[in-house]
Specification:
The complex is a heterodimer of chains A (about 110) and B (about 110). Chain A is mainly beta and about 110 residues long. Helices cover about 0% and strands about 50% of the residues of chain A. In chain A, the strands form three sheets. In chain A, strands 2, 5, 6, 10, 11 and 12 form a six-stranded mixed β-sheet that branches. In chain A, strands 3-9-8-7 form a four-stranded antiparallel β-sheet, with no helix packed on it. A two-stranded antiparallel sheet of chain A has the order 1-4. The chains are: A mainly beta (about 110), B mainly beta (about 110).
Chain lengths: ~110, ~110
């Protein structure tokens, strides 16, 4: 079956530090890959996505590249802010059959001044 | 700008009681989903629907039932609540097309004592 593995948290960084959150996946065929973010007390919202190999998704300074050869979709940001503190989820889905999402366990990020 | 609205936001049940969680979306989305979020496990799909009048099982359907009588509403029922169903429940919806974004509600925190 499909699965997503994320690095465990929590991750604590100082403001302006570089962020990497690792994500690898197991899937057949060619899934689409997503990063969702959950701010405290809220639901999940889409951060970025990539739909085919070598695609780079980007939003709000975050980036992730779909690497089929390493089955990875690592999230990066060059300079984090306190406002980036949240839980980040890597996920995959296939078009058809309801576009169901398979999530990783989530990585909590805390950014301190 | 309502998006996906879940009712209620919090609930405490006694073991064996029943309840229904309501999800309403105003974006005319075809697809709707119910997920549960548990610590260290990410989000897991309970049931989903690809259109009015249709439902299908997800990864963890046991102990839950769903109905989609109207396109905009997706109900999740617990007939006889158990402590193992203590969780945060999220409803989501999306368009039918390829690689579409899922929009999430703010969640329902359910405690079964």
């Amino acid at each position: 079956g499909n699965s997503v593995t994320q690095m465990e948290g929590p991750v604590t960084l100082s403001e302006e530090a570089f962020l990497t959150i690792n994500c690898t996946y197991t899937a057949t065929g060619y899934p689409s890959l997503f990063w969702y973010v959950q701010y405290p007390g809220e639901g999940l919202q889409l951060l970025l996505k990539a739909t085919k190999a070598d695609d780079k998704g980007s939003n709000k300074g975050f980036e992730a590249t779909y690497r089929k050869e390493t089955t990875s979709f690592h999230l990066e940001k060059g300079s984090v802010q306190v406002s980036d503190s949240a839980v980040y989820f890597c996920a995959l889905s296939y078009t058809g059959g309801g576009n169901k999402l398979t999530f990783g366990t989530g990585t909590q990020l805390k950014v301190e001044l | 700008n309502a998006g996906v609205t879940q009712t209620p936001k919090f609930r405490v049940l006694k073991t064996g009681q029943s309840m229904t969680l309501l999800c309403a979306q105003d974006m005319n989305h075809e697809y709707m989903y119910w997920y549960r979020q548990d610590p260290g496990m990410g989000l897991r799909l309970i049931h989903y629907s690809v259109g009015e009048g249709t439902t299908a099982k997800g990864e963890v359907p046991d102990g839950y039932n769903v109905s989609r009588l109207k396109k905009q509403n997706f109900l999740l029922g617990l007939e006889s609540a158990a402590p193992s169903q203590t969780s945060v429940y999220f409803c989501a919806s999306s368009y039918q097309g390829r690689n579409t974004e899922a929009f999430f509600g703010q969640g329902t925190r359910l405690t079964v004592v």
